[in-house]
Amino acid sequence: MLENGLIIIIMGSIAILYFVRMLVYISQFLLIVWKDVVEMASIIKSDITGIEVERELR
Length: 58
Fold this sequence. Notes:
mainly alpha; rod-shaped; 0% strand
């Protein structure tokens, strides 16, 4: 009985860690996409208004 409980606890903790890792990967991906969208929007805005917007060099 004790072994089954330990196995359930270990498997549950592994599942939680994988879930948290997937959330971190998804949030990192969304952050990268958001930065690119903001950069593209600033480029389009500078093209429309004719005012040069400072962009960081990569």
